[in-house]
Amino acid sequence: MTKMITVYLTPDEIDSSLIFIGAMRKDKQEFNVTDRKFDAKNTSWAVNLMGHLGERAVAKVYGVSVDDRVLTGGDAGHDLIINGKTVQVKTTITRQLIFNSRQSFSAEYAILVTLIGDRTQPHIDSHFIVWGDISRERFLNICFEKDFGYGVRYVCNLEDLGQELKAVPLAHKDLTEVE
């Protein structure tokens, strides 16, 4: 069974993400960068914020820093570096790890995070569940195609995730591990 870690972000952590998303959105607008969001029921701002808050949750669990630099055109294909490995954090409201294409899994690992709260306002009265990780190689070997109504996506289920990237001991009062 996959262990999950529930993460509650502090007001300061949420404020830092709000500031980052504000600066990032301004940069995108200034340089006419097209969003790649795929959620017809949500705004680009909320999708970006949900993703960044998910990155913060994972960073807290693994004891690493979040990169808050605004990079025109996006990052280098990964969100965090954990134990020397590049990681993409996928924050969603489901229990499935989803990539838009096989090629879009560009890091060495991915970690699934589920938002528990309102996805249109992910910073208000919400928390996150960090489920586990999967290597790119394993994902590409076991993923399956699924059409959610907006084209085929590549998916793996919660049971396919592991714990190769070891989390730090749970020293924070706002982290809870559950079997």
Structure description:
This protein is an alpha+beta fold. The protein has one domain. It is built from three helices and nine strands, in the order βααβββββαβββ. The strands form two sheets. A six-stranded mixed sheet has the order 2-3-5-6-1-9. The protein has a three-stranded antiparallel sheet with strand order 4-8-7, with no helix packed on it. β7 and β8 form a beta hairpin. α1 crosses α2. The protein is globular and about 40 Å long. The chain starts with a strand and ends with a strand. The model has no long low-confidence stretch (mean pLDDT 87).
Topology overview:
Blueprint (H helix, E strand, L loop, with lengths): L3 E4 L3 H20 L13 H19 L17 E3 L2 E8 L3 E4 L9 E8 L10 E9 H7 L1 E4 L4 E6 L17 E4 L1
Parallel strand pairs: 3-5
Antiparallel strand pairs: 1-6, 1-9, 2-3, 4-8, 5-6, 7-8
Helix pairs in contact: 1-2
Write a concise keyword list for the protein shown above.
179 residues, alpha+beta, 3 helices, 9 strands
Average pLDDT number: 87
Cα-to-Cα separation, first versus last residue: 7 Å
Order of helices and strands: EHHEEEEEHEEE
- Helix percent reads 25-40%
Query: Would you tell me the structural class of the helices and strands?
Result: alpha+beta
- How are the strands of the largest sheet arranged? 2-3-5-6-1-9
Bulk shape: globular
Number of structural domains: 1
Low-confidence stretches: none
How would a crystallographer describe the biggest sheet? 6 strands, mixed
Total strands: the figure is 9
What radius of gyration results from the CA coordinates?
15 Å
Structure annotation, total helices: 3
